[in-house]
Hints:
Layout: E1 5-9, E2 11-12, E3 15-16, H1 18-31, E4 36-42, H2 49-54, E5 59-64, H3 73-87, E6 91-95, H4 98-111, E7 116-119, E8 121-123, E9 130-135, E10 140-144, E11 151-155, E12 172-174, E13 205-209, H5 220-228, E14 232-235, H6 237-241, E15 262-266, H7 272-275, E16 283-288, E17 301-304, H8 307-320
Parallel strand pairs: 1-4, 1-6, 4-5, 5-12, 6-11, 7-11, 13-14, 13-15, 15-16, 16-17
Antiparallel strand pairs: 2-3, 8-9, 9-10
Helix pairs in contact: 3-4, 5-8
Bound molecules: flavin-adenine dinucleotide (FAD).
Family: Belongs to the ETF alpha-subunit/FixB family.
GO molecular function: electron transfer activity; flavin adenine dinucleotide binding
Cofactor: FAD
Amino acid sequence: MSKKVLVLGEVREGVIRNVSYESIAAAKQIADGGEIVGLLLGDSVSSLAPNLIAYGADRVVTVEHPHLKSYTSDGYSQAILAVYEKEKPEAIVIGHTSLGKDLSPKISSRLKSGLVSDVTEIEGSGDSALFIRPIYSGKAFEKVKVKEGIVFITIRPNNIAPLEKDASRSGSVESPAVEITNLRTIIKEVIRKTTEGVDLSEAKVVVAGGRGVKSEEGFEPLKELANLLGGAVGASRGACDADYCDYSLQIGQTGKVVTPDLYIAAGISGAIQHLAGMSNSKVIVAINKDPEANIFKVADYGIVGDLFEVIPLMIEEIKAL
Length: 321
Ligand code: FAD
């Protein structure tokens, strides 16, 4: 049976995040010919609606309110639940981002629905769709089928390819008035930590350093390599704990989950908690002095050597191209 699917378009600093387009592709598979309704929340987001339509939404609902300018789980859940009541979709798709991870359990508890979180792949479509998600820190995958009630999923960024953009697609945009009241938190100001370069969660190339990098300065060659490849720098928790870099760079079970096309791990042993955040990368290159290091078990290319010799050689070769 075809389904109507509601997809949250996540907006950051006036731009729709890629995971929202990936969510539309996932929604198409669940909808099985049904309608895809995009949802945008913010204080001024209507102008972004054509982007969701170009990537496959049939219709877009925008809720604009001063209290939605910055994300709060209270404000966003009120808006989503109001739209849910009006639209009564049979399925909801949200990105498994920090926002999605915070918001989705709240919505599912209010709707008394199940929640299939962190979906990396969907097999089949419509009622027979099987949702594949990692378990045990990525050591195994489970396949989940939703037998009854609302199909509510969050999808891991960078795993489900978005549909081809088609700017000629058309669809209506509606802006219902929604009351956002009794908020327990009101964001007055957002002070952002300034981060240089490419966003780690969406980077196509990640150069990550571990305790083997040995110091804050030791990260400099990694930054140079990442810049040359148009990528971002990441780190193991070992490197963050040792104060070589900021925790915002941490990749793994308790850090960010990344799935770039190329992941270069330098001076990282490959603990299971680190692998949970990067083992789905398309190509993994590991540089480690210890030939027995666990990271080599998941690496497509392994270089046994000193990262302070290997990375400068890589930089030299890339510059010579
Ligand atoms: P180490 O294990 O010390 O490895 C350093 C590596 O560098 C070694 O393999 C060594 O051979 C190599 N090396 C040293 N010098 C050089 C050199 N000059 N050139 C090349 N190689 C060199 N970890 C995470 O990363 N992310 C998480 O999200 C995370 N969450 C955790 C959650 C929990 C509940 C727990 C208990 C742990 C978690 N950890 C996490 C920690 C994890 O278990 C490891 O302790 C951590 O990943 C180790 O970091 P590391 O590989 O940088 O350090």
